[in-house]
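Notes from the pairing session

We agreed to fold both candidates in a single pass and log them together. This is the raw record for the first candidate, unedited. Please don't reformat it; downstream parsing expects exactly this layout.

Candidate A
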Amino acid sequence: MRHNKKHGMKLGTDASHTKAMKKSLVCALFENDRIKTLEQRAKAIRGDVDRIVTWAKKGDLASRRLAIAKTGNPDLVREVFEKAAQGMWSDRNGGYTRIMKLGPRKGDAAEVVIIELVTEAVKKKAPKSSVTKVTKKAAPKAKKAEEAPQAVEETVGETVEETVEDAVEETTEVTE
């Protein structure tokens, strides 16, 4: 039976301390943009941070009140909503945090990480260049058998040059 089993990570403490710790870590992350903590704690607050940023992108009053209830700091929520209104995360759909491992802590070998807010723009994937398939022509018998490999090499060279030129044109269009 699952009596008194709540969802989420317990983090080695009782429920009220876990809730207070997560609220404190979320506030510290939004204030400093980067904090150093344990891996399990960072993974536990990731969802809360993403949820608050999503509410900030939405920007309405109900979302603001939910964010204030989650963090307990109206001034901090105002700053986060202003960043979202300026378009800090406008091109990103989720994944607002990044976790980088630092290694084990010296005393108890607990995994220490840095969790930070992602502020860079999302890189668009370059469209795949279309590669034309080279078809071999049937080589005439006897006399022109020697010329056939040269003809295939010429067509391959031409198609490769065309593909390279197309790729260069596409990248210049993307950068412009």
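Candidate B (folded immediately after A)
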Amino acid sequence: MTQPALTVADEVAWPVAVKLRELVGDALVDALGGAPAVCAVVPGRDVAIDSCCDGQAWVRIVRTYPVLPGEFPGGRGTPLDDGADPGAFWAVELGAGTARCAPTIDDAGNPPTAVELERSAAELADDAGRIRRAVLCELQNVERVESVWIGEQSSVGPSGGCVGQEVLVAVMTNICVCVDEEA
């Protein structure tokens, strides 16, 4: 799916989030649960899971903070005075995940079968494995990405007929936000 071209002033987190969204979308094309109908950079702390039965994938910007290379992925504060560090290294923490339909009680009131439950778990495990591979094998090759750290994978739901998973990722970039525009 072609994404609209946007001009965003955030040169630290936004480009990394968009690139990870592209990598996640490519990784899920042949997923066990099928390619998600929606794959987007989404706003907010929590993801609105609106289209899980068609497959939904997301990348969200969790936080952005200045960092020293030896301290990554730990954050630090930066003084904003004349002697300030220009913030050439930034860590961008992202969440990348998927949601699928959860097996539910059928019209006759029967609970999901073991086969249905295991298929659902397998689809989410397949998604998670594909996302991890994209993060570990591809994200480190993105221009201006210095280092990649992968964190925990957490389950989402089941809730409202949806179930999912999300992997936390931190990326250290070498972007200076105070570039001299006269140069």
